[in-house]
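Researcher: Quick one. two chains, 672 residues in total.
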Amino acid sequence: MWDVSADNSAQGGNGPSIAETGEFGLIRQITGHGATTASGEPVVVPEVLQGPGDDCAVLQFSGPVVSTTDALVEGVHFRRDWSSATEVGRKAAAVNLADVEAMGARPIALLVAFAAPSDLPLKWATDCSDGLRTEASEAGAVVVGGDVTRSAEVMISVTALGELAGPPVLRSGAQPGQVIAIRGLLGWAAAGLVVLSRGFRSPRAVVEAQKVPRVPYGAGVQAAAAGAGAMIDVSDGLLADLGHIARASQVVCNVDSEALPVPESLQAVSSATGISPQRLLLTGGEDHSLVATFDPGRVPAEWQVIGTVGERTSEPGVRVDGAVWEGAQGYQHFRQ
Amino acid sequence: MWDVSADNSAQGGNGPSIAETGEFGLIRQITGHGATTASGEPVVVPEVLQGPGDDCAVLQFSGPVVSTTDALVEGVHFRRDWSSATEVGRKAAAVNLADVEAMGARPIALLVAFAAPSDLPLKWATDCSDGLRTEASEAGAVVVGGDVTRSAEVMISVTALGELAGPPVLRSGAQPGQVIAIRGLLGWAAAGLVVLSRGFRSPRAVVEAQKVPRVPYGAGVQAAAAGAGAMIDVSDGLLADLGHIARASQVVCNVDSEALPVPESLQAVSSATGISPQRLLLTGGEDHSLVATFDPGRVPAEWQVIGTVGERTSEPGVRVDGAVWEGAQGYQHFRQ
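Model:
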């Protein structure tokens, strides 16, 4: 109904633009293969009774359902000159799927709202869609719905749904005497951003971790089964996210910095830039690892103990080697 | 992690900007009252076990779940000089809640991703959030999760979840011999847009229908209980949306134009602009009424019969008084 001055003038050498495909064509491109991976292999998710194509998707859950939403905006969360469309799609899925994992749930389905300028090459949109489906299928989930609209910037808003087999693992469940353990990378995505910001493309491992977080799929259910007290995914930085657990649980979380060995790639970035490896490890966000608290002796395989939960307190917080960390604990949009 | 040059310079006389509130403060503003209406009355939705504040919301459904997502973008779906923030929030909720209704489901919960320039007045964001909650509560639902990010334009991406008491009412279920019936307004939102586009603010009823669609909450469940064959909400225009039913069901949908009386407000817009009332009624979108097919004699109260479902055919489509409608059937983004 609005002024529909679709701008076809910017058509370059990248094949048709999304303006030429139309809204419904693009929605089909994004959601039409909901039941397959990008490579065409079928993904069967029995909870999905009806995929895209009607007013809503229809799902049938046997346990409680978790749901979360996170949007990626061009220039804020990704740059098209740094990341491929596939990588952007994967990241948009991953940041949401990590939240599902962090509740101790199994990812089931994604819904995607895709907004873009009319002159965006169709291939960018479909590659992004392939990335979304690829990442979803790595987590055992499928894309069940979508919306497409015009906007000045590319924006991908994803909602993830997951299913619990038991009670959710909340931020508020950390118990004094438990240990804190991590599964996944720390500081890699932040190191990758430092590298990219300075115009470099290596070390490749950290650059790739920045472009597509390596979420430890399955670790959320694993932690829940091991009776994890509290859990969160590391999106803003270890100290910032442990701070959420500390405040919700009214405890002090003690991190032992010696339990965080410095990987070679972070050491390389540190040597080249002067940023301390500890700062990357403790405050770097966007890795979407999982950090959880466990009773001692119940830490699952592949989780690495990095600290302990102290007594209940009215002054909750995070300590590194017994002291308050000096400096920013993480990153917020809209603020320095 | 990204270049976080929050722009505080544009601070005007509208109170603090969202940049000064910070991401977490704004998320709390948007989602923190998830269990109340904008006026503070509690909304108890027993399916919501855990609202905002953790990595995910937690819900418990007894029947199948429907889910849908739709985004509103400034300049495409609303203008801040035409609509108040509250109206934009209400519309963002309504367009999604209408999709839940159109499956025959009961709305339960909304998740909201809110993107805005850093200098947006905080009051605009919180008023928008109040609008989202007000509209949700009219449908019996609550806001259970949110995300806030920076962007050049205001964009509100909403996911709605609903619950079915029986099988979903799909687009594909129209049966030859059924009647077509509508509940809600037709053409009002389009007439409102025509009026606003020409710089007028009246007739007020159509302007208000454009700014906040009047979704007939509860009518979806009512139609499902009456055994509706197919159902859809009128977002793109009656003919366009009936076309979806016709193609999915492989039938011809016959609309009787005499069964669509012209309301006074549409007649007024028609007289002032020369746009025929039939065009507004048949092709105007954004009213988010419900149109469904029923066995004759099973049309629920308050639904108005406007046509019939013809025989199965390999050439499905919509006919008005027996003929193909000449002209556009509806509206698509990205295209004229």
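The domain at 18-163 of chain B is CATH 3.30.1330.10 (60s Ribosomal Protein L30; Chain: A;).
Researcher: Thanks, that's what I needed.
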